[in-house]
Specification:
With 229 residues, the chain is an alpha+beta fold. It folds into 2 domains: 90 residues, TATA-Binding Protein (2-Layer Sandwich); 89 residues, 2-Layer Sandwich (TATA-Binding Protein), CATH 3.30.310. It is 27% helix and 25% strand. It contains 5 helices and 9 strands; from the N terminus they run βαβββαβαββββαα. Strands 2-3-4-1-5-9-8-7-6 form a 9-stranded antiparallel β-sheet, covered by helices on one side.
Length: 229
Amino acid sequence: MPKVKKPKKPTLDFKTLGHNNSLVTVPPFKLQNVVSTFSLGCKGLNLHKIALDYKCMEFNPQNFAAATMRTIEPRTTALAFASGNMVVTGSKSTMEARLAARKYVRIFQNLGIPVMFKNFEIQNVVASANAGFPIKLKDIADKFGLYVSYTPDLFPGLIFRSINPKLVFLIFRSGKIVITGARNVNDIKMTYGSLYRNILVNFRDEKGAPTSSSQYRNLLRSQRDTSEL
């Protein structure tokens, strides 16, 4: 049988979602982790020898193919691969991520290992925010079902995926939000602001409503049971 193509999901473009409630002040977000990658520009690294000779990295090839390195300022962790590629996590800004990457390069250079700083890229920016009020997650799921995953019995948060740009929002009943998948801070700023002004404020629950995920889940259950009677 010929394959049946799934209908294409309509685009929910946050850049054109609208500018409703433009006078509303959007609560700030805070960067929690910036993941970056870069290359040392070499043909290969003898991770085992470097780990034995210089003690600047932890390497156990039986557990993982990469070696672990760390910097104190900024506080980051890096994975170094034999190919010369590196992944850096833990930075609190894109500037810190670049600074940390250069510090790892300098560590190798100070050991006399011929490397260079190449192909630096930001792969993921994770941020957090707090809307400051309880959110009607079930109502958002009903309204934006194509872009939302919400199964409170399995996970307390609502997963909202934007299309342009491609970001993932974990939205919790309490109003706390985790934003991931961004390649730059501007995408977070624009998309989070649009989400808050055009969606979250429209699904704000009344003052005094329970903010606990478990209480909210029980409330939904009771409403569902009542509707089935």
